[in-house]
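Response to reviewer comment R2.3. The reviewers asked that we include at least one raw input/output pair. We reproduce the pair for Aliphatic sulfonate ABC transporter substrate-binding protein here without editing.
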Amino acid sequence: MTAPRTTLRRSLAAAAALPLLIAALGACGYGSQAKKDDPGKAAPVAKGEKIGGLDEVKVGYFANVTHATALAGLQEGIFQKELAGTRIKTQVFNAGPSEIEALNAGAIDIGWIGPSPSINGYTKSKGQNLRIVGGSASGGVSLVVNSDKITSLDDLKGKRIATPQLGNTQDVALLNYLSEKGHKVDANTGKGDVTVVRQDNKEIPNSFKSGAIDGAWVPEPTAARLVDAGGKVLLDEKKLWKDEKFVITNIIVSQKFLTAHPAAVEAILRGSVRTNVWIKANPDKAKASVNARLKQDSGKELPASILDRAFASVDVTDDPLAATLRDEAQHAVKAGLLKDPLLEGIYDLRPLNKVLQAEGKPEVSDAGLGVK
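Raw output as returned:
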């Protein structure tokens, strides 16, 4: 399948918004160093031969249930085992733009991240900074509302609905949904028939409890936190997608690192594939592992009621679901946040398909958006 020709021009809105977001987030540093492992469990040790003589691989991810593959794979030592004597160095991020900035600066080599930051970063660099090399998760996003104020999807007009960040994956999804329902909203200010409020995931539950917002379109575990606070799931985003599958987390890599250290990239991908097999075969152990890593990274673990709901709504996957990334890019265009985003060559799934073939699994498709 031949990839569609796309241009590099971005809308003025997106060009203005993204640098501001990056500057604001980057002012606090790229991300936090992962904390030392819980003394109850020894940290995985790098032992054996270094892959290609490489001392370390710098890995980024979010302390978020939609990054379950990264959390469990790191906690269980699966990635370190695949890397043998090459040590893993981790950084935890709160937002996509700061992770993209870290990738561009060489502060990380590989990262787990959402589709919108991947598209933004690739387009902004004119296709020079990253490749998506694998999938990681599908689903795990819901519209949760105060049922005293909103009883159906027809009640959204005049209400205040939060998303985690201007232009992030959930923000784009909400704007697209509202547009399809005939609601007019200014993508940059969030003002319109429905007011879109951009807040950090950490702040949204308190805003919901105080009544400052009427609902939120958010990933897990924030959605589960809102349900725990009395909210009602009005819409599970997977219901809007074919076969109820859509990409929520990708694995990206610096093009420079991919070229220089292909064996290390394959090792991470092999670790990802094997972690996903382990998660599916051991759901209870996987939940405990994810929670242990969340506690290590954030200082707090999730209550069982929140963890159970969040974990159940996320599907780990090796498939990047490339066709849905193309759709999400078009949603951003419709919302006015992007104009003709660059997608051609954003994927390089050759290393992943090599790993999948060796593991006896079917290859995955780049939907015509792969590197030539």
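The domain at 12-138+245-358 is CATH 3.40.190.10 (D-Maltodextrin-Binding Protein; domain 2). The chain has a mean pLDDT of 89. Further pairs are available on request from the corresponding author.
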